[in-house]
């Protein structure tokens, strides 16, 4: 539904009522693949988006991986608010999960990730040696929702282009084992979402970051919802990026002001909402608006199940 087709009141209604669900068939197969191959690995690497650590965390993962040792990776930390990322690391550690912040673009944090994976598997490897078996590489599985950076991290750790990469969700399609630095063998899996979002805010945040394909979304509504949030939580970033002196209470008016600043105008002076929406989403996803985190642990205390 294009914003240009509605008045302001109608737009607010669309924002509230739009439902986001996405569960391609390969994701169901991936869940079965993880369960099937879990017995082959020593450690599960759970990859999250540092900007939305809870929304990018598949709630079925706890059930799927059960009590396997786990290392949480907060990827895209270069795009996130570093102060809040530190809070998330402490939060996961409090709930008995090792956690590492990573920037897969420049490799920052990957050496620490290797160390944490080796440490998580240390007890298992030692038991094998005590039984008379020769030491073997640590076997790990990496899981996460689409477009969170799995392939980029694997390629960095492997020192070569071992996994397919892309800026579109769902690029990694099949199972593959990859030899990594630090004597680690990794079983890669495609990204998986879940059949139904219990909280539509989760769906929006996944849409904001690109974990859900833009092609199936109302991009104008998604961008309007993101702008509404950013104007409330990071107003200085919005004003600075788009050279706005003040922000309006109405998010649609803010989008129109941004459109005017960026020349998103049709002939006749009509606002090009689609172009403005794509600018806002692209610049948020690339970090041009600023280092932004959409979720804080103090808002979600108790939502992560404790693992002993």
UniProtKB/TrEMBL annotation:
<keyword id="KW-0963">Cytoplasm</keyword>
<dbReference type="InterPro" id="IPR027417">
    <property type="entry name" value="P-loop_NTPase"/>
</dbReference>
<dbReference type="GO" id="GO:0005737">
    <property type="term" value="C:cytoplasm"/>
</dbReference>
<keyword id="KW-0378">Hydrolase</keyword>
<dbReference type="InterPro" id="IPR030378">
    <property type="entry name" value="G_CP_dom"/>
</dbReference>
<comment type="similarity">
    <text>Belongs to the TRAFAC class YlqF/YawG GTPase family. MTG1 subfamily.</text>
</comment>
<keyword id="KW-0547">Nucleotide-binding</keyword>
<feature type="binding site">
    <location>
        <position position="191"/>
    </location>
    <ligand>
        <name>GTP</name>
    </ligand>
</feature>
<feature type="domain" description="CP-type G">
    <location>
        <begin position="30"/>
        <end position="195"/>
    </location>
</feature>
<keyword id="KW-0694">RNA-binding</keyword>
<feature type="binding site">
    <location>
        <begin position="75"/>
        <end position="78"/>
    </location>
    <ligand>
        <name>GTP</name>
    </ligand>
</feature>
<dbReference type="InterPro" id="IPR006073">
    <property type="entry name" value="GTP-bd"/>
</dbReference>
<dbReference type="GO" id="GO:0006412">
    <property type="term" value="P:translation"/>
</dbReference>
<dbReference type="GO" id="GO:0003723">
    <property type="term" value="F:RNA binding"/>
</dbReference>
<feature type="binding site">
    <location>
        <begin position="147"/>
        <end position="152"/>
    </location>
    <ligand>
        <name>GTP</name>
    </ligand>
</feature>
<keyword id="KW-0342">GTP-binding</keyword>
<dbReference type="GO" id="GO:0005525">
    <property type="term" value="F:GTP binding"/>
</dbReference>
<dbReference type="InterPro" id="IPR023179">
    <property type="entry name" value="GTP-bd_ortho_bundle_sf"/>
</dbReference>
<protein>
    <recommendedName>
        <fullName>Ribosome biogenesis GTPase A</fullName>
    </recommendedName>
</protein>
<feature type="binding site">
    <location>
        <begin position="103"/>
        <end position="104"/>
    </location>
    <ligand>
        <name>GTP</name>
    </ligand>
</feature>
<dbReference type="InterPro" id="IPR016478">
    <property type="entry name" value="GTPase_MTG1"/>
</dbReference>
<comment type="function">
    <text>Required for a late step of 50S ribosomal subunit assembly. Has GTPase activity.</text>
</comment>
<dbReference type="GO" id="GO:0003924">
    <property type="term" value="F:GTPase activity"/>
</dbReference>
<dbReference type="InterPro" id="IPR019991">
    <property type="entry name" value="GTP-bd_ribosome_bgen"/>
</dbReference>
<dbReference type="Pfam" id="PF01926">
    <property type="entry name" value="MMR_HSR1"/>
</dbReference>
